[in-house]
């Protein structure tokens, strides 16, 4: 690309149109989308309800800044808090901004409520986390591709192995300055890593015991992707701060935010946090419709049901092709045997066959189609995927 900066390696396809679970390139070829914008277009591409709402709102009032109230702001906050069960919702734009907001709130709570000495609040992160590429996010990262040569890093960010309650408790015991533990209920970018049953309850219990805030990063796993409204719902657990993004936007306009109870979220007073576009009339109206679509079209139920179809089909693959299937709902990863092929090369073959996805960490094929996908469309995609794999050599 002659004029653009480099921050991604795209597949060699130029897309021009999307509708529901399908995408079309400049030459008119149609593809099944098995990525959904990294779980952003859970509602399908260009959902007619979302397009209608966006057209209406953009022609009425798109942006005012938060210097004023606007009509859709209260409506979104009321709907999300009542639906998900926290006192307050604070809107931002991108997932990384929402996650940073959670860290800011947790630090402020650490000083003002937990009474941690000034400048000493520590935030603990699960190793192999991914929540963006800002300076704070890369300071929390254990992926050298993410953090190398971007230091100095944010201080008092600590890391602990994921899915290891013993290590987490040791960390909490050793360090009374910890204000929060931030983790993904399922690690997405790490390759769809699902923790042991009971891990989320264990995190909740330890955070209660040591007076630490539990921040659940559900930017990718939230909003029906894993077959429940939230991934924490698989163990019926409630974090102190919930981070949402991606599908909150329906893929139309960046919207993210955090939910928390009053004592926590009101540690931010006027002037201590803000965003030019966060909570805009357009963003709020789009987000409200995006979540209503997920609810009214029963997309969590669809993800749960079709996730089982996906699992049963892909677990049949021989181990010399795929060594492991990982998945919950329609968030899945297929680990390709390194001796068989590189994930990138498989994705190139899939593109030729009419299916789009991308690998994670070289060998893990991501499978996260729009949640509007039907059983027939899923089976069409699985047929393409298994045929390409079986005929690869």
From TrEMBL:
Gene3D superfamilies on file: Aspartate Aminotransferase, domain 1, Type I PLP-dependent aspartate aminotransferase-like (Major domain)
EC number: 2.6.1.13
Similarity comment text for this entry: Belongs to the class-III pyridoxal-phosphate-dependent aminotransferase family.
Coiled-coil stretches noted in the UniProt entry, renumbered to this chain: none
Pfam families, per the entry: Aminotran_3
GO cellular component: mitochondrial matrix
Functional pathway: Amino-acid biosynthesis; L-proline biosynthesis; L-glutamate 5-semialdehyde from L-ornithine: step 1/1
Predominant subcellular localization, coarse grouping: mitochondrion
Recorded catalytic activity of this chain's protein: a 2-oxocarboxylate + L-ornithine = L-glutamate 5-semialdehyde + an L-alpha-amino acid
Domain of life: Eukaryota
GO biological process: L-arginine catabolic process to L-glutamate; L-arginine catabolic process to proline via ornithine; L-proline biosynthetic process
Protein name: Ornithine aminotransferase
Localization in the cell: Mitochondrion matrix
GO MF annotation: an example: ornithine aminotransferase activity
Keyword Transferase: yes
This protein's record includes keyword Ligase: no
Classification via PROSITE patterns: AA_TRANSFER_CLASS_3
Keywords, alphabetical: Aminotransferase, Pyridoxal phosphate, Transferase
Record-linked CDD domains: OAT_like
